[in-house]
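Agenda item 2: adenosine-5'-diphosphate complex prediction
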Amino acid sequence: GSISSQGPRQLTTAQHTAQEERLVVAVRVRPSQEATDRCIEVVSSSSLLYDDGGKSRPRQYSYDHVFRENDTQEYVYKTTTAPLVRDVLNGYNAAVFAYGATGSGKTHTMLGPVPRKKPATADRPPATAASSYDGDVSSHDTGLMVRAIEDIFEHIESASADNSCKVSISYLEIYNELIRDLLNPGGPLELREDHRGQRITVAGLSEITTSSRKEVVGLLMKGNKSRTMEPTAANQTSSRSHALLSITVQTRTPLGTKQGRLFLTDLAGSERAKKTKNRGKRLQEGAHINRSLLALGNCINALSGGARYVNYRDSKLTRLLKEALSGRCKTVMIAHVAPEGKHRDETKNTLVYADRANSITTKLQNSVYLDEFKDFPTKHYQSLVSELRDEV
Ligand code: ADP
Ligand code: MG
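Presented output:
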């Protein structure tokens, strides 16, 4: 990490007891056919080696979890999201972020295999959401979004008959700082704040109440198809938008109603503008994407450091996630990396982003040195800002 040690530290543990485990950081390595030129080797369930191409010795990174190429969707779900679902059913908020460059596996983790737009042939009819993803939630490849919904329904069915539950979902994208409803695509929607700036809502966003798993899966696949996909030099199906699914569970108990919300976010590609040779419109998108990922990183840093003031205002993404990020909310970041040598630079960037988040968590779990944290978020912010300046 970038925290330097300068002289003796005052140890304070009282301030963060409620924040332990606030941020869990996992890294998932995407499968690859590449046998020789690789930059990642997973060495345990919590660490990996990064090879910079032989310039220096491989460097070890450790996280809360490291998922290898053949780890199943079920395993990833059980490790990262299942514990949050229990929280949500108890009336708390929780959030999962999929972070990483385009092509690193974010959408695979969150949604599962998505039909590709391949030209149809005589023996291969055009892929549709229905043909390759028919709502069979037991599918091996089903992603976290569907598994979470599935899990919530199962818990509800086995819960006490005294409690009645309502599950509703909304699904939106943020593209170029504009919000669009993915369940009911149309013009951009506005953020509304109450007079104290506490509750933030999206005016006109559809919120669908459902009790059918199959319907939910269909809605998600259809919503994903409405996401803004723009080809860049990095990848033909590059996704330059953030997709945010929110699942709200309201439980009426004899004692009152409790509400918990789970946010599952498939973030836009984290690749840097320079590499994708973006020009004009693309470059502007890149700037927005980096701005919101930067803002998100800053919020996470500030929250993990126990900061009194957290700035959510820098991007739509962080304003929207304020509810999830503040209060008693557990957050999991799943950083995705590609193991091929040709993706070395992006993979390194992602490992470092995740490492920053993770080093803070580890510090919190052990002991916090207050004076170290005082300037850490600002330093981090400054270095990221200068990185962004270099790009544009
Ligand atoms: P991103 O959303 O980060 O741009 P994708 O999820 O679209 O990346 O993944 C890129 C490709 O790799 C897709 O064809 C996807 O199906 C495949 N892929 C990614 N992760 C996995 C995985 N864990 N297992 C199998 N295939 C994967
Ligand atoms: Mg994607």
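Discussion summary: The longest helix spans residues 281-304.
Owner for follow-up: CH.
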